[in-house]
Amino acid sequence: MVRFWLKLALLLSVLCLAPVLLIRAQPYDDGGLRALITPPEGCLAPCFMGIRPGGTSPEDALRLLQASGFVGAVLHAWSHPDRPARIDWTAPDKQHRFQAIQVDFRGNLATNIIISTNLAIAEVRLSLGNPDSF
Predict the structure, then answer these.
(1) Confidence (pTM)
(2) I need a labelling partner for 87 at 20 to 30 A (CA). Which of 3, 34, 56, 72 fits?
(3) What is the DSSP letter of 56?
(4) Whole-angstrom distance, CA of residue 33 vs CA of residue 38
(5) DSSP character for 51?
(6) By C-alpha distance, which of 115, 101, 111, 102 is closest to 56?
(7) Residue 95: pLDDT band with limits 50, 70, 90
(8) Closest to 115 measured CA to CA, from 103, 126, 107, 127
């Protein structure tokens, strides 16, 4: 009788453990997160979607954003003599990992890039790996 219960326990353990192992064996799909947060080739950090603080004009930034595929609607793109120029835009759909991004310009060069996102740090670590140091 004890032998029957041991076999049943082993069978149930294997049946419960198999789906967990199958799920864990699959590679992590970051859904384009790596493409969003890593600089494109030839654009050294700090660089976001080809926009470099201190090196990108408003016209170039708009062109880069519209060509990226990550931009839905440009909400504001203005320049005022008394205030810095600014570009605000939103993601094209709910599938993207950010809600809004803002680029500020002073003179004719980008100064700040502000990103509103719903990313968890765990997703970034899964996509890029652990940092070299904490």
Answers:
(1) 0.62
(2) 34
(3) -
(4) 8
(5) B
(6) 111
(7) low
(8) 103
DSSP 16-50: HHHHHHHHHHSPP--TTHHHHHSPPTT-PSS-BTT
pLDDT tens digit sequence for 30-52 = 767 777 777 788 888 888 888 88
Q: Which residue has the tokens 């004890």?
A: 2
What is d(CA 88, CA 102) in angstroms, rounded to the nearest whole number? 4
Query: CA triplet 54, 60, 65: central angle to 5 degrees?
Result: 105
Q: How many CA atoms lie within 13 A of 61 on its CB side?
A: 30
At 91, list the tokens.
């993601």
Across the beta sheet with 83-90, the strand order is 74-80, 83-90, 98-106, 109-117
Q: In this predicted model, what pLDDT tens digit does every residue of 77-93 receive, in sequence order?
A: 666 666 667 777 776 66
